[in-house]
Amino acid sequence: MIWFGPSGNSESFYREGNRHSWQMPRWLKKMGLNAYEYQCNKGTNIKKETAEKIGEEAKKAGIRMSIHAPYYINLASVEEKKRDNSIQYILKTLQIADWMGAGRIVVHPGAVGKMSREKAMSLALPTLAQALKEADLSGFSEISICPEVLGRISQLGDLDEIILLCGLHEGMVPCVDFGHIYARSLGVMKTIDDYRCIFNTLENSLGKERADKLHIHFSRIEFTDAGERKHHTLEDTEYGPDFEPLAKVLAERKAEPVIICESRDKMAEDALILKDIYEKQII
Fold it and tell me: What is the pLDDT of the chain when averaged over all its residues?
């Protein structure tokens, strides 16, 4: 099984008269999609009843749920209190995932700041390890934490750093944002062999199962010398990356990832396009 869906709610969802996120699962099912990443990127204030309602509707519609944790998590902050707060944000997101029946949460590792990348990792690794320990004690060990490859070069979270973070526990799954890798590489990632190299690196480090059951984010990305600048839609073809090479690699590996589309304002519509591109590779 391969899973396609949006990150958040498309503008068209609201234009059609919908008002609540619990209406999304049925709406996505009608479109032909089967995944949905709920956004807690600005905070974890959703009520338990609302989260359970979304989860119930997702289960009925056959929609696989994931949640994006708050953007302001920083596992590598030089301030101990901010690292402790980041652990609590992860735990709150896991609680919401538990209510919602979501099996994965996506977490931004944080920023490097004025430190070396090695110093930042020396702070991030024990912080995440403590979050994993507290998650286990809280009964959330069945929910995967997915550290995300980030798009700005100043951010912690290139592919190698994400692999190191995921090495803390076999239950962790990398969130590989191919738009972010494209932006970090300043547009170098283009060929099918570039995509194969990424999967080979993941498999050699974390094993075939985790490489083939990735959590994937995808969109076209505008970038500067600093990396990611802005997300675009699939029709904005002046920006990369292209999905076709990735679809070919997924098909040849018979991989079963969750693929979440982060196109600007048209994430569900573009998720359906991604699905169609992939299905053409397996005919």
Answer: 97
Query: For position 45, what pLDDT does the model report?
Result: 94
Q: Residue 110 in contact with residue 77, Cβ under 8 Å?
A: yes
Q: What is the DSSP-derived secondary structure letter of residue 74? A: -
Alpha-helical segments (H) within the chain: 11-15, 24-31, 48-61, 80-100, 117-137, 159-166, 178-184, 192-206, 208-212, 244-253, 267-281
Report how far residue 157's alpha carbon sits from residue 189's, in angstroms, rounded to the nearest whole number: 17
Angle (CA) 243 217 274, round 5°: 35
- The residues that bridge with 215 in the sheet, in sequence order, are 175, 258
- Three-point CA angle 129, 178, 155, nearest 5°: 50
**Taking the complete model, does pTM exceed 0.90, yes or no?**
yes
Query: Where does the pLDDT of residue 30 fall: very low under 50, low under 70, confident under 90, or very high at 90 and above?
Result: very high
| C-alpha dist (Å) from residue 238 to 185, 222, 262 | 17, 9, 17
Check if the beta carbon of residue 261 is closer than 8 Å to that of residue 5: yes
